[in-house]
Design brief:
The chain is α+β, with helices and mostly antiparallel strands. The chain has two helices and four strands. It has helices at about 25-35, 40-55; strands at about 10-15, 65-70, 75-80, 85-90. The chain has a four-stranded antiparallel β-sheet with strand order 1-2-3-4, covered by helices on one side. It is elongated, with a radius of gyration of 13 Å. Residues about 1-5 have low confidence and may be disordered.
Length: about 100
């Protein structure tokens, strides 16, 4: 496996507040963590945290949840916000991925 140093990368996605679709943010977070050089287990751990964060901020109705994904050489940060509420999770990248 080739591991490269990851320069800061950020992007935003919206997911519906509808519980059927919230999981999309966790799936993106898991894959993002893996692309940053972590293994599947680390990706799954971040996905669980992102699921909780999105559930905490999701509003009733049609207001989407904005999810900001940011990576540095040291960690992944995901911030979910909706209807004035924000929840942020951070997960360090394992040693050797930066």
């Amino acid at each position: 496996r080739i591991v490269r140093s990851m320069s800061p990368v950020a992007f935003t996605r919206q997911v519906p507040s509808d519980a059927r679709f919230r999981r999309l943010a966790a799936e993106v977070a898991s894959r993002y963590m893996e692309l940053a050089g972590a293994g599947e287990g680390e990706g799954a751990a971040l996905a669980r945290l992102v699921d909780q964060a999105v559930d905490e901020v999701a509003a009733d109705g049609d207001t989407p949840v904005d999810v900001l994904f940011q990576a540095t050489p040291a960690e992944i940060e995901v911030a979910a916000s909706c209807a004035g509420r924000t929840s942020t999770v951070r997960r360090p990248l394992p040693a050797g991925t930066a």
